TrEMBL record:
Protein name, as recorded: Alpha-adducin
Region (Disordered): 1-36
GO BP terms, alphabetized: barbed-end actin filament capping; positive regulation of adherens junction organization; positive regulation of establishment of endothelial barrier
Biased composition regions of type Basic and acidic residues, renumbered to the chain: 19-36
InterPro entries: Aldolase-II_Adducin_sf (IPR051017)
Organism expressing this protein natively: Acipenser ruthenus
GO cellular component: adherens junction; cytoskeleton; focal adhesion; plasma membrane; postsynaptic density
Any GO molecular function: actin filament binding
Length: 114
C-alpha cells in the first residue's frame, strides 16, 4: 500500500453561526431598582414573597367568574356521565348556602364576655 490509496481527506463543513439567543441576563436591567431589591433580598424573604404572589394568583383564579363557570360545567358533565339526579345538586347547593350563612352569624370568641 502506498500513500496514494485514492481516498480523499474527509473534512467537516465549517460551523454555522447560530443566531444569538436572548438569555435571561440579556433581558434584565441591572440598574433597575426592582432588580437591585430582589438581588439583595434574603433568600427566605424572597421565597416568602414568591409564595405570597402564588397565593394571590391562585385566589384570583378561584374567585374569577370563568373558574366558577368551568366548575359548574364540570359538575353538569359529571351529572350527565353518572346520571345523577338534578335534585342532588340542588341539595348540595342549599347545604353550601346554609354553611355560609351560619358562618356569618357566628360571633368571634373574643367578643364573649365572662
Amino acid at each position: 500500500m502506498n500513500g496514494d490509496s485514492g481516498a480523499g481527506v474527509v473534512t467537516s463543513p465549517p460551523p454555522t453561526t447560530t443566531p444569538h439567543k436572548e438569555s435571561y441576563f440579556d433581558r434584565v436591567d441591572e440598574s433597575s431598582v426592582e432588580y437591585q431589591r430582589e438581588r439583595n433580598m434574603a433568600p427566605d424573604l424572597r421565597q416568602d414573597f414568591n409564595m405570597m404572589e402564588q397565593r394571590k394568583r391562585v385566589s384570583m383564579i378561584l374567585q374569577s367568574p370563568s373558574y366558577f363557570d368551568r366548575v359548574d360545567e364540570s359538575s353538569v358533565e359529571y351529572q350527565r356521565e353518572r346520571n345523577m339526579a338534578p335534585d342532588l345538586r340542588q341539595d348540595f347547593n342549599m347545604m353550601e348556602q346554609r354553611k355560609r350563612v351560619s358562618m356569618i352569624l357566628q360571633s368571634p370568641v373574643s367578643e364573649h364576655k365572662k
